[in-house]
Specification:
Blueprint: H1 2-57, E1 60-65, E2 74-79, H2 80-153, H3 186-214, H4 216-221, E3 234-237, E4 240-243, E5 250-253, E6 256-259, E7 266-268, E8 273-281, E9 285-292, E10 296-306, E11 313-314, E12 319-323, E13 334-340, E14 343-345
Antiparallel strand pairs: 1-2, 3-6, 4-5, 6-13, 7-12, 8-9, 8-11, 9-10, 10-12, 10-13, 13-14
Helix pairs in contact: 2-3
């Protein structure tokens, strides 16, 4: 009994499934048919649309040109497509004309700007050439001065190539000749030559520096600086034959007179040494004598004050007194002497001063 019930149930389900499948197939056929008919109708509408468009563009037009005079009327036939195409071409040509005309105006303005820039560049180049010529003039003076200094010091100047004649007025003859690249500016080649020369000059200048460093003590032992600390001085009387300011007679002035137009300016030792005399004399007034190495002495006279004592060691540049008007003097000044042994020498030979001040 149970088996019969189960069989009936299965058979019922099978029949239901068969009906369902038939229903699905029927729906698929209907859907396919509708889609096919709908797509066909859509394509026919599109085709009809293009046919109408084609007919519109293929429509014939007659264009007539009627002159005001009695001339013959001009007419010609065309279609809408040719007319529209002609209008589009005309618009394109006119647009292109305005576009390229605008580009042409812009290009002309840019060319004008470049021309102005080129003029400014040429002016700057001319100025650069003038400065380059001035540079070579300065280099010529530098070379002459350096060569003389090296000769005095016994230092040989390094040169890359063969020597050139110093009397040659051409500036390029001052330096070693180098090849000029074809097409390059002469000024560039000159600057390269100058650079080479300066590089060669570094070594002898370094040798001078080393020599000065090793001889530093020697320079401090020689009266080689100005005895007046105030730079605003003048030489009121030079060394040698002069007219005495009091009696008007010719006499030999054995020193240099430094004047700053006022009292109290500092007087310094022109070299390191030992103070041997601090005193007063009717002629020199308040004076100081310093003994230096190598048999040299210096005298500082007509002082207002004396700031060192006998036997004291002083260094080059140390303040030892102030400018005054003591002794036989017509105004505040410093009388300065240099002695080597028993000889009195011109102090200007040992210090770098301008006698015209």
């Amino acid at each position: 009994m149970d088996d019969l019930t189960t069989f009936k149930h299965i058979w019922y389900n099978f029949m239901n499934m068969s009906k369902t499948q038939k229903t699905i197939k029927k729906f698929e056929k209907q859907f396919t048919s509708k889609v096919s008919h709908g797509f066909g109708a859509f394509m026919r509408k599109i085709g009809y649309f293009f046919v109408r468009i084609f007919k519109v563009f293929d429509s014939k037009l007659t264009i007539m040109i009627v002159p005001h005079s009695q001339s013959k009327v001009i007419n010609f036939q065309t279609n809408v497509f040719a007319l529209v195409l002609g209008i589009l071409v005309a618009i394109g040509v006119i647009s292109s004309f305005f576009y390229y005309n605008k580009r042409s105006v812009s290009a002309s303005m840019e060319i004008s700007s470049l021309v102005e820039q080129n003029r400014a560049t040429l002016a700057s180049l001319d100025e650069l050439r003038d400065e380059n010529a001035n540079l070579f003039q300065a280099a010529k003076r530098f070379q002459t001065s350096l060569s003389q200094s090296l000769s005095l010091l016994g230092i040989e100047q390094v040169r890359n190539n063969s020597e050139t004649s110093a009397s040659n007025s051409d500036l390029s003859a001052l330096f070693n000749s180098t090849e000029v690249t074809q097409g390059s500016l002469k000024e560039v080649a000159d600057v390269k030559e100058l650079t080479t020369y300066l590089e060669d000059a570094v070594k002898p200048i370094e040798q001078i520096g080393k020599m000065l460093k090793t001889q530093q003590n020697l320079f401090t032992e020689i009266p080689s600086i100005c005895p007046v600390k105030n730079p605003n001085y003048h030489i009121s009387m030079a060394f040698g034959p002069n007219i005495h300011p009091l009696n008007g007679n010719w006499y030999i002035h054995k020193g240099l007179d430094f004047s700053t137009w006022r009292y109290g300016d500092a007087v310094v030792a022109t070299a390191s040494g030992q103070v041997v005399t601090v005193g007063f004399d009717n002629s020199f007034g308040n004076y100081i004598i310093i003994k230096h190495n190598h048999g040299m002495y210096t005298r500082y006279a007509h002082l207002q004050t004396q700031r060192v004592k006998k036997g004291e060691s002083v260094s080059q540049g140390q303040i030892i007194g102030t400018i005054g008007n003591s002794g036989v003097s017509t105004g505040p000044h410093l009388h300065y002497e240099v002695h080597i042994g028993s000889d009195v020498v011109d102090p200007a030979k040992y210090i770098n001063i301008n006698l015209s001040k």
